[in-house]
Write a structure and sequence with these properties.
heterodimer, A: 78 residues, alpha+beta, four-stranded antiparallel β-sheet, elongated, B: 139 residues, five-stranded mixed β-sheet, 3 helices, 5 strands, globular
């Protein structure tokens, strides 16, 4: 049996650009974050995490529709 | 000795701690969308009695990490606190972030997070290692 995974209409780069365009309007110094990207059934999950392990704080988390590129949900962590 | 270290709930009820947390909240300017920002400080424990003193709040930004309050005897950092002044109505999570939880577990002291709806907890229930160890964060 062969499983064929469909290619999302919205690429990872495009989803990242959508998330980033929103994130820069809310957060300063996005270079402080590392970014995790995963393709899930409900879209691209993009999470910004503070790089330094002993520094508190959070970044934005997004779900981007993999068909339209629209932001399905977002949460800003402090 | 661990029995002398207050739990997070006991410290939240402490008037010294509450005053420090509320002062930090006011300094965060939560009602001002342009100037609101995080504030925070540390709560120090007397290693002989477990009493908390020297709470540092107003004007003490989250980035500062004094070893102990000026003018005090030997004190242990027993807890920290900070504010999350951004409101849920604008899409913000008011509770601890994954980074808060990770950092607080690494520091080994509990964290009180004052937000618009309540005070959230993060990190261990009480100072790791009790009243022994380093005066700053426990080893």
């Amino acid at each position: 049996m062969v499983t064929v995974e469909s290619v999302p209409a919205v690429s990872c780069d495009r989803a990242l650009a959508v998330a980033h365009a929103d994130a820069v309007t809310v957060y300063d110094q996005l270079q402080r974050y590392r970014i995790e990207v995963e393709l899930e059934p409900d879209g691209w999950h993009i999470a910004y995490h503070i790089r330094e392990k002993r520094v508190a704080g959070g970044g934005p988390h997004y779900v981007i529709d993999a068909t339209t590129g629209a932001i399905v949900s977002k949460k800003y962590y402090q | 000795m661990d029995a002398l270290v207050p739990t997070v709930a006991e410290l939240e009820a402490n008037t010294v701690v509450r005053a420090a947390v509320e002062a930090a909240w006011v300094d965060s300017l939560p009602a001002d969308p342009q100037r609101r920002h995080e504030e925070g400080g540390w709560i120090y424990l007397d290693p002989m009695t477990g009493d908390c003193r020297g709470a540092c709040a107003s004007g003490c930004s989250v980035g500062d990490q004094p070893e102990q309050p000026a003018g005090e005897g030997r004190m242990l950092r027993g807890r920290e606190f900070h504010t999350h002044p951004n409101p849920a109505a604008e899409g913000w999570a008011t509770g601890p972030s994954a980074g808060d939880i990770r950092a607080d577990d690494s520091h080994g002291v509990p964290d009180l997070i004052r937000a618009e709806n309540r005070i959230h907890y993060s990190g261990p229930e009480r100072r790791r290692g009790g009243l022994g160890g380093n005066p700053g964060y426990p080893a």
